[in-house]
Amino acid sequence: MSNNTIKINDFVIRFANVNGTGSASANTMFALSIFRMGVPMTAKNVFPSNIQGLPTWYEVRVSEKGYLGRREGVNLVACLNPQSLAKDVATVMPGGYFVFDSTKNLHKEFLREDINYIGIPMMEICMREYTDPRMRQLFKNMIYVGALATLLNIDLDVLNGVISDEFKKKPKLIDPNIYAINLGVNYIKANYDYPLNIRLEKRNLVGNKIVINGNTACGIGAIYAGATVAAWYPITPSTSLIDAYGKYASKLRIDKETGLNKFAIVQAEDELSAIGMVIGANWNGARAFTSTSGPGISLMSEFLGLAYFAEISTVLFNVQRTGPSTGMPTRTQQSDILACAYASHGDTKHILLFPSSPKECFEMSADAFDLAERLQTPIIVMLDLDLGMNDHLSEPFEWDENRIYDRGKVLNTEELEACVQYGRYLDLDKDGISYRTIAGTHPTKGAFVTRGTSRDEYAKYTEQGEEYVKNMEKLTRKWETAKKIIPEAELYQSSSNHKIGMLFFGTTLYPALEAMDILKDQGIQIDAMRIRAFPFTKAVDDFINQHDYVFVIEQNRDAQFRSLLVNELDINPKKLIKILNYDGMPVTADCIVEQILPNFESILA
Amino acid sequence: MSYIKPPFRHPDLPSNELGYSKKDYEGTISTLCAGCGHDSISGAIVQACYEMSVEPHRIAKLSGIGCSSKTPAYFLNNSHGFNSVHGRMPSVATGANLANRDLLYLGVSGDGDSASIGMGQFVHVIRRNLNMTYIVMNNGCYGLTKGQDSATADEGSLSKGGSTNLFQGIDLVGLAMELGASFVARSFSGDKNQLIPLLKAAMSHKGFAFIDIISPCVTFNNNVGSTKSYDYVRDHMETLGTLDFVPYKNEITLDYQAGDSKAVQLHDGSMLNLHKLNLEWDPTNRKSALEQINQSKDKGEILTGLIYIDQESTDLHSLIKTTKQPLNSLTEKELMPSLTDLELINEDHR
Ligand SMILES: Cc1ncc(C[n+]2csc(CCOP(=O)(O)OP(=O)(O)O)c2C)c(N)n1
Ligand code: SF4
Ligand SMILES: [Mg+2]
After folding, report:
1. Can you tell me the distance from the alpha carbon of A176 to that of B109, in angstroms, rounded to the nearest whole number?
2. How many CA atoms lie within 13 A of A439 on its CB side?
3. Alpha-carbon span B78 to B55, nearest angstrom
4. Are residues B150 and B88 in the same domain?
5. Are the beta carbons of A225 and A366 closer than 8 angstroms?
6. What's the pLDDT band for A583 if we cut at 50, 70, 90?
7. Same domain for B113 and B257?
8. Kind of pairing, strands B208-214 and B132-138?
9. Is A9 left (phi over 0), alpha (psi -120 to 50) or beta?
10. A512/A506 Cα distance (integer angstroms)
C-alpha cells in the first residue's frame, strides 16, 4: 500500500535497536549525513537503564522548516530488534514504511494492510560476507544504513565522507565500512523502487551550524570559563558532562612544560561529598563545579543551603530525568524545578538558568561561573536528559577572547592592607553583595570563620535575632540584584498585544514555537515568552500582566514552574493554564496544540 | 555570648622565628564547658603552630558540626576557618586543598562527626591520602546534642544517666590503619607533652595525618564507669614512647640509645625522635604497628603515641598530577583556550 504524495525533507525515521550492539554510531552517521546535506534534523535516543540486551530506539526528525522538536507519527521504522517488533510495527503511520531483516519471514500477525514492508535479508548477507560473529553484528548496522540511504535518497558521497571522518583515526576501517554500506545500497537497487515517497533533497539550510549535545557544550563552557575543579558522582544523564570536561581538559589544559594538569577531577564517594568538594574549592578561590541529576540534588540539599547562607559561589549542573532512582532514569523531564529553586532547609532560594540549545548550554555554563562569583551563591544550570544527551542542531559556539573572568568582590593583599576593619558580611555597596577574602591572602587581615547564620556582619559568632534578620534582609537585597544580571527572558513576537500568551523554558522551546505556527495556521495568535532564569525578572511579570491568560508549558505532572510563578510573582493562579507533558519523552508540538485548543474555546467564549 | 580578645600585644612577649608571638595563634575565647578536653587540644594546637613558626594565614582550619567542630574559632584567629556541615568536613577540606595545595590544612572533627554521620567521608579522605592533618576530638559521646552514646563509645561503658552501651565501639585508629592512612597517632587531651610534638609531626607529614585524641566531655561523659573519662584514660593509657619533634632548621644532635630510640625524617626535613618503650614496635612498619594495636586491645589498654608513619607518602595532587602552581592562582592566561581551539571544536561537530 503506497502513499502517492511525495514528502521532501519532512519526515520521521525511527530505528529500533538492541542496546550494546554498536548501532548507536551507525545511527549517528546516518543523522550526520542528513545534516551535511544541508537539511535541518534532530536526533533523539530512547534508551533503557541497562547496558546490554534491551530495546533502544533512535529517532531522526527531518524538517525543512527547521522544526527541531520531536514529532509523533513515524514515517519509517527500521526494525533491527525482534524483541520490539510488535510495538514497532504498530508505531508506523498509515502509509508509512517498515524496514526489517527478512532473513526470517515476518509472522502474519505483524502484517498491516496500511503500511509498506521492505525486507532486507541483513543477517543472510552478513553470514555470506563475514565469518567473525562480531563483524557480522557491526557490519549489519552499516548494511541497513546503506539501504536506508538509498531508500531515502541520501547522497552517498556525503555518507561516505561522514564514514571517512568517523574513522579518521583508524583509516583501515574506512573501506570495509563503505563496502558494507554498498551491500545495503546494492540490495535495495536490485530489489526495490527507490527512492521512497519520503525522501531527502540537498538544501543549504544549516549554514555554519553544528551538531552537538548539551552536556558536551556545558563541559566545554566550563573549560573556557576557567573551572579547575570538578567533583562528581556518576549518574545518568549527567555523567557525559563531566566526561566532556575531562576529555577537553586533557587536550586544552595540560601545562606544556611539565605535562601536569591545570585541572583536577575527583570522582567522589557520593553527591554529598561532590558538592562538599565544590563548595570547599570555591571557598578557597578556585572555580569548581559538579553535575548531577534528581537523586543527587536530594543528597546535595543540606550543602546547598549552607552555600546559600554562607554565601559561597557554587556551580551545579542538574541534567533532569524522571524520578526517583527507580523511576525511568533514562527518560527526560523538567521535574526538579521546585526541588532546585528552594533546595535545602530554612529560607533558601537559588538562581536557576534554563538553557534551550547547546549554544546556550555553552554560554550559560560559562556565565554560571561569573554569576556564582559575582553573587557568591549557588547557580544551578537546569538541563534535561533531552538537551544533555541528545544531539541538537545548534549555532556554533562563540567566545570573546578578551573576556575577563568576573571574580566578583574579592579583596587582594593590597586592598586588605588598606582596609581598616574588614567585615565579611557588611553590605557596603547596598546591593546585598559583600567583599570576600580567600585564605592565605594577608598575614593579619581578612581571616574569619565561615559558618551558616549564627554570626554578625563581621563573621563573629552570635545568636542574636536582630543579626539573623539583618542578614536575611541582606540576602533578599542580593536576590534583587540578581534579577538585574541574570539572563533576560526572550520574546518571540515583535509586539505583544494579544490577549493570550504562552510561557515555557528549556527544551520546550522548539515544540512551543512549532505549536505557535500550527495555531497561527488555524487563525490563533499567541504571544510567546521563553524564561531563561529564576528569579523571575520584571519582564516576566509584565508579560503575564499584559495578557488575560497565559499557558505555562512544562514537562512535569505538577506544573512546578507554574507554582513558582504564582508564588514568586503573586499571580492569580486562574490566569495561568497548565500545559503538561510527563511521559518521559520530549514534549511535541502536537501535544501542546491538543492541550491548548480546548482551553482556547472556553476562554474565548 | 561572644566576645573577642583585645588585640593587645605586650612588647616583652617572646616571639617565634617569624616574629609572631603566641597571641598571633590564639583564637576567640572558648564557649565550651570549663574543663572540656577540647579546649586543651585547642591550646595544644596554638602551641604547636607557634613553635613550628608557621605563618598563621597559611593555615586553613576546617570542621564539621559538634562541640569539637566549634573549636576552630578558639585557635588561629588569623587563619581562615570553615565550620561546615555535620560529618562533611573531609569533602570541604578536599575541595579547599584541590584549590590551593600550598596551605596547611587542619581538620577538626568529633567522634559523632567522623565515626557516624561522616564515616563515609572519613574513609574516602583517607583513601585519597589528602594532604591534611585530621584531628578527632574523641569523647565517646555527642556533646552538643547532650550526651548520647557515639559509635566510639566502648561496649559496656556506662553513661552519666546509668545506661550501659550495648554495642561495640569503632576504633578509628585501627580503621585508619586498615584503610592505609599514611600517618596514624593517638593521644590524650590531658597529655600536652605528647600531643604537641605529635601535632607538629602531623603537620609536617605529607599526605593524610590522623590523630585520634581522647578528649573527655566533662558534662556528659566523665562519670565513673565511662571509658572516656579523665580518670579512666589516665589509668589505662599505654604510651608507645616519648617523642621530640626537631624542626628541620635545627641541627640534629640526638642521643641514640640503640634499641629504644628511632629517628624518623618527615617530608619537610624535620625529624621525629622517638624514645621507644616497646622494643618490638617500629612506627615505619605497618605490620608491627597493627600488632601493637591488637596487643593493647587485648590488654584493655589505650595505646597512645605515634603508631605508624609512611615516610614515603605522597598525596592526592601527586596522584592526579595537578600543576605545582595552586589551581586557584591560575588566570585567564593559563586557563582559557584560544579561539582557534574553539573553531576546531565547532568544526569537529559539523
Ligand atoms: C544533619 C545533622 N544531623 C544532626 C545534627 C545535630 N548534631 C549536632 S552536633 C551532633 C553530634 C556531635 O557529636 P560529636 O561529633 O562527637 O561532637 P562533640 O559535640 O561530642 O564534640 C549532632 C548529632 C546536625 N547538626 N546535623
Ligand atoms: S558538652 Fe561536653 S564536649 Fe561539649 S563543651 Fe561541654 S564538655 Fe565539651
Ligand atoms: Mg563527641
Report:
1. 62
2. 34
3. 9
4. yes
5. yes
6. very high
7. no
8. parallel
9. left
10. 10
Cis previous bond, A329, omega within 30: no
Domain that residue B265 falls in: 250-276
User: Same structural domain for residues B133 and B224?
Assistant: yes
Per-domain residue ranges of chain A: 7-199, 212-394, 413-485, 490-604
Give the global pTM. Answer: 0.96
Assign residue B305 a region: left if phi > 0, alpha if psi is -120 to 50, beta otherwise? left
Question: Is the CB of residue A284 less than 8 Å from the CB of residue A450?
Answer: no
Any domain includes B145: yes
On whether the A490-604 domain is CATH 2.40.360.10, my answer is no
Return the half-sphere exposure (C-beta side, CA atoms, 13 A cut-off) of residue A63. Answer: 18
Position A160 scores a pLDDT of 97
The residue of chain B nearest to residue A261, with distances taken between CA atoms, is B322
B267 and B129 in one domain?
A: no
**Which residues in chain A have their CB less than 8 angstroms from residue B55's CB?**
443
Architecture of domain A212-394: 3-Layer(aba) Sandwich (3.40)
Same domain (yes/no): B191, B133: yes
Helices of type H across chain B = 37-52, 67-70, 89-99, 111-112, 119-127, 172-178, 192-204, 230-236, 286-299, 316-320, 332-335, 339-348
Q: How confident is the model at residue B250 (pLDDT cuts 50, 70, 90)?
A: low
Query: Domain check: are B141 and B283 in the same one?
Result: yes
Helix (H) or strand (E) holding A364: helix A358-375
| Cell, residue A452 | 551558616
CATH superfamily for A7-199 is: Pyruvate-ferredoxin oxidoreductase, PFOR, domain III (3.40.920.10)
CA atoms within 13 A on the CB side of A547: 29
What's the pLDDT band for A3 if we cut at 50, 70, 90?
Answer: low
Instruction: Please tell me if residue B81 touches chain A, with a CB cutoff of 8 Å.
Output: yes
CB count, 10 Å around CB of A437?
24
Same structural domain for residues B270 and B293? no
Count Cβ atoms below 10 Å from residue A583 Cβ, excluding itself.
15
Shortest distance between the Cα of A39 and any Cα of chain B, in A, equals 12
B72, B121, B334: residue with CB nearest A449: B72
Cis check: omega of the bond before B11, within 30 degrees of 0:
no
In a domain, B236, yes or no: yes
Q: Quick check: B92 and A258 CB within 8 A?
A: no
Identical fold between A7-199 and A212-394: no
- Quote the cell numbers at residue B81: 576557618
Minimum-distance ligand 2 atom for the alpha carbon of B35: 7
CA distances from B27 to A439, B45, B81, B203 (A): 16, 11, 11, 19
Pocket of ligand 2 (CB under 6 A): B 32-33, 36, 38, 67, 139, 143-144, 217-220
What phi-psi label fits residue B328: left (phi over 0), alpha (psi between -120 and 50 degrees) or beta? Answer: alpha
What percent of chain B lies above the pLDDT cut of 90? 79
Min Cα distance A391 → chain B (Å) is: 10
What are the angstrom distances between the C-alpha of A564 and each of A333, A507, B139, B140? Answer: 17, 18, 46, 46
Burial class (CB in 10 A: 0-12, 13-18, 19+), B179: middle
Q: Does B99 touch chain A (CB under 8 A)?
A: yes
Asked whether residue B204 falls in the same domain as residue B299, the answer is yes
Contacts for A542 with CB less than 8 Å, ≥ 6 apart: none
B139 lines ligand 1 (CB under 6 A): yes
CATH number of domain containing B102: 3.40.50.970
| Count of structural domains within chain B | 2
Contact status, residue B226 vs residue B159, Cβ threshold 8 Å: yes
Q: What spacing in Å lies between the alpha carbon of B69 and ligand 1's midpoint?
A: 9
A72-99: per-residue pLDDT in tens? 999 999 999 999 999 999 999 999 999 9
